[in-house]
């Protein structure tokens, strides 16, 4: 009886040893990670704070130190939103590019993802080839398509071979054809990302609802649009959010293809801010424009992620 009583405290105290070791290891791990986290926060926060302060001044590099710049408050933001039509047009143009490019990338990516759910010869090789454009640098992609769309380039030669001499357009002299080159370039470059995300989502769709719908007599089209696609909705939203944030920053392809021309017909918001900061040296004005774009992007991302948050909340309940 005494042996059992003496053994009880030992058994009760034995699980405490691993907990102490785990707590000690966690503290050591946090201590080791702390310096890198502090450096990362410093690199992230300090430039952001400096740029935010700069956006409330009239500072340019030709006027001396930033600390001596005149504080103008919300004047830069007011001028951007009320008087700067070029900024508003650049924002609208960027949103138009985003809508067109994301729609095409989604449709093509979804079609390819559905195709790759089946087995066919050469599937692995074709899969690798389809992912290749995503791995190419945007500057290289922009320069390559600039060469392709030249007046004497391969695309115009094929068009003239098919429809006769003089039938090929001057791609970069018209606003609409110049915009078309940007859309084609962006869709070619980033459709593989949509394809990869949607293919992963299709592979994760549970089989039981699909089998139940098939047993109840639903056609393949009804199964896809009424069962599979609704379950794929969170994945689709995530894909749109990831690509949407990138399209808002569209710069490299536009810079290499058109430089924003002809005129300002293809000037995106990133290219406009670049010209403000590095061509006109209006760094404070450009910083204000950048923060407006940042706030707008955060609002759009918040709205786009609302359906995903609702689904997660329903699952928790």
What can you tell me about this protein's structure?
By secondary structure, the chain is an all-alpha fold. It folds into two domains: 16-47; 74-316, MetI-like fold, CATH 1.10.3720. Helix content is 75%, strand content 0%. It is built from 14 helices and no strands. The radius of gyration is 28 Å and the shape is globular. The relative contact order is 0.11. The model is unreliable at 1-17 (pLDDT under 50).
* Rg value: 28 Å
In percent, how much strand structure appears in the residues? under 5%
**What best-fitting shape do the alpha-carbon axes yield?**
globular
End-to-end distance: 49 Å
Broad structural category: mainly alpha
> What is the name of the CATH superfamily of the largest domain?
MetI-like
Biggest pleated-sheet summary: none
- CATH topology tier name of the largest domain: MetI-like fold
The sequence of SSEs as H and E is: HHHHHHHHHHHHHH
Q: Which spans have pLDDT < 50 for at least 5 consecutive residues?
A: 1-17
Question: How is the topology of this model organized?
Answer:
Blueprint: H1 2-13, H2 16-54, H3 75-83, H4 85-115, H5 123-131, H6 138-148, H7 154-163, H8 175-204, H9 207-215, H10 220-231, H11 233-248, H12 252-257, H13 269-279, H14 283-316
Helix pairs in contact: 4-8, 4-11, 8-11, 9-10, 11-14, 13-14
């Amino acid at each position: 009886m005494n042996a059992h009583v003496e053994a009880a405290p030992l058994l009760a105290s034995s699980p405490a040893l691993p907990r102490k070791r785990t707590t000690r290891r966690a503290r050591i791990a946090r201590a080791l990670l702390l310096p890198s986290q502090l450096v990362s926060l410093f690199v992230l926060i300090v430039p952001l704070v400096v740029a935010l302060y700069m956006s409330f001044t009239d500072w340019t590099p030709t006027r001396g130190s930033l600390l001596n710049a005149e504080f103008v408050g919300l004047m830069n933001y007011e001028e951007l939103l009320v008087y700067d039509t070029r900024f508003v047009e650049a924002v609208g143009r960027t949103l138009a590019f985003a809508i067109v490019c994301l729609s095409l990338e989604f449709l093509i990516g979804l079609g390819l993802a559905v195709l790759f759910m089946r087995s066919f010869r050469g599937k692995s090789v074709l899969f690798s080839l389809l992912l290749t454009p995503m791995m190419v640098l945007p500057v290289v992609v922009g320069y390559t398509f600039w060469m392709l769309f030249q007046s004497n380039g391969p695309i115009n030669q094929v068009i003239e071979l098919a429809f006769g001499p003089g039938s090929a357009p001057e791609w970069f002299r018209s606003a609409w054809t110049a915009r078309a080159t940007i859309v084609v370039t962006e869709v070619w470059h980033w459709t593989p990302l949509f394809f990869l995300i949607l293919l992963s989502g299709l592979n994760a769709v549970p089989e039981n609802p699909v089998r139940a719908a098939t047993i109840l007599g639903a056609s393949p089209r009804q199964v896809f649009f009424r069962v599979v696609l609704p379950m794929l909705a969170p994945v689709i939203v995530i894909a749109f959010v990831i690509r949407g944030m990138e399209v808002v920053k569209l710069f490299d392809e536009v810079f290499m293809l058109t430089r924003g021309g002809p005129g300002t017909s293809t000037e995106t918001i990133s290219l406009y801010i670049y010209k403000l900061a590095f061509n006109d040296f209006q760094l404070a004005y450009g910083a204000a424009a950048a923060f407006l774009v940042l706030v707008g992007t955060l609002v759009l991302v918040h709205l786009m992620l609302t359906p995903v948050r609702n689904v997660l909340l329903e699952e928790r309940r």
